[in-house]
Amino acid sequence: MAWYAVGCYYFCIRQYDNARRYFSKATALDKNYAPAWIGFGHAFAAQDESDQAMAAYRTATRLFTGCHAPVLCIGIEYMRTNNLPLAEEFFRKALEICPEDPLVHNELGVLAYRQGQFPRAEQHLQQAIDLLPQPPSPSWAGTVVNIGHAARKQKKFAAALEAYNAALALAPRSPSVYAAIGFTHHLQGEYGLAIDMYHKALSLRADDPFASDLLYTALRQESQTDLLLA
């Protein structure tokens, strides 16, 4: 457990080679210590070594039959490598084992979004948030943002803005959330509100190409609208 904790530390500071070294020490001492095998897999995945990551996750699956976590990790790795059908198969297996895990619903929501199934994505992502202790921790802000993205793709702009504002409450200094709010206003032709949000996004991250390009577009469209009104 001590070597595993050291491996987790190095993983958190993104020194993945060191993380793997200490996860290896943990598994050498106890080959049945499944958390270290999962950590091993995470460290390999972070360095795009998918085959080794899968081997580590499958070892954890064999050691902990009936545990959904390594099954979920295999699905995440398949999704990372763009093998979406296999990813869904493993997410469904994880869901059967543990239907109350918000992370399983989050991954199913992300998968559905990538497949263009936006209503299903919104449903799973919302279910993930509903399963969490309320209010959610800031680490779940990305899931709330994704609910907004799924709603926006369905042209449910009011619902999208509601989700983005909820995400802002969790992560008030997120430039991507301000840019998403701006883009939603932009799509509705509310150029002034969009411009304000793009400026807020760029004040937090000046090199954001998405906000910068859309700010230019919104300024041009607003000036054309003003000319027409004149």
Helix content estimate = over 70%
H and E string:
HHHHHHHHHHHHH
General form: elongated
DSSP, total strands: 0
Give the CATH H-level superfamily of the domain at 1-99. Answer: Tetratricopeptide repeat domain
**How does the helix and strand content classify structurally?**
mainly alpha
CATH class of the domain at 1-99: Mainly Alpha
Q: What is the average of the pLDDT values?
A: 93
The tally of helices reads 13
Share in β-strands: under 5%
Q: How far apart, in Å, are the first and last alpha carbons?
A: 72 Å
- At the fold tier of CATH, the topology name of the domain at 1-99 is Serine Threonine Protein Phosphatase 5, Tetratricopeptide repeat
Break the fold down into its secondary structure elements and pairings.
Elements lengths: L1 H11 L3 H14 L4 H13 L3 H14 L4 H13 L3 H14 L4 H13 L3 H13 L10 H13 L3 H14 L4 H13 L3 H14 L4 H21 L1
